[in-house]
């Protein structure tokens, strides 16, 4: 069964959140070492950097995974034409275009 767009967005947000946490830890740690703790201390600055990068990455990854979740048709490779030397008689791009055109006419 194909996952729904909401499920894909949820998975994308989780992946983006994991990446955002790691990036926030790295950049927040580097920033704290370079600039010092600031007015709120090391932990608060690091936590804010991690949370903001997590939210940003999760948001954009969720949107990106929904955009890319269009259903792709499976290619029937058995219908592609080979000659004896295992090379294509016709370039695969042309064969797939012909197959797509014949599917759209139906």
TrEMBL record:
Q: Where this protein primarily resides, as one coarse class?
A: membrane
Q: Which family does it belong to?
A: Belongs to the MGR2 family.
A GO BP entry is: protein insertion into mitochondrial inner membrane
Q: What stretches pass through the bilayer?
A: 12-33, 45-67
Species for this entry: Entomortierella parvispora
**What SMART domains does the entry give?**
Romo1
Q: Name one Pfam family in it.
A: Romo1
Recite the UniProt keywords alphabetically: Membrane, Transmembrane, Transmembrane helix
The record's listing under InterPro entries reads: Romo1/Mgr2
Which PANTHER family does the record cross-reference, listed alphabetically?
A: REACTIVE OXYGEN SPECIES MODULATOR 1
The identity of this protein, by name, is Protein MGR2
Q: Where does it localize? A: Membrane
Q: Name one GO cellular component term.
A: TIM23 mitochondrial import inner membrane translocase complex
């Amino acid at each position: 069964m194909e996952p729904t767009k909401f499920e894909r967005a949820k998975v994308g947000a989780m992946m983006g959140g994991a990446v955002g946490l790691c990036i926030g830890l790295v950049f927040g740690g580097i920033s704290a070492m370079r600039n010092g703790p600031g007015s709120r201390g090391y932990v608060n600055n690091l936590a804010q950097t991690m949370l903001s990068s997590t939210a940003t990455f999760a948001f954009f990854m969720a949107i990106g995974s929904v955009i890319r979740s269009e259903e792709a048709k499976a290619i029937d490779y058995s219908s592609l034409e080979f000659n004896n030397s295992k090379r294509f008689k016709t370039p695969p791009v042309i064969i797939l275009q012909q197959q797509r055109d014949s599917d759209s006419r139906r």
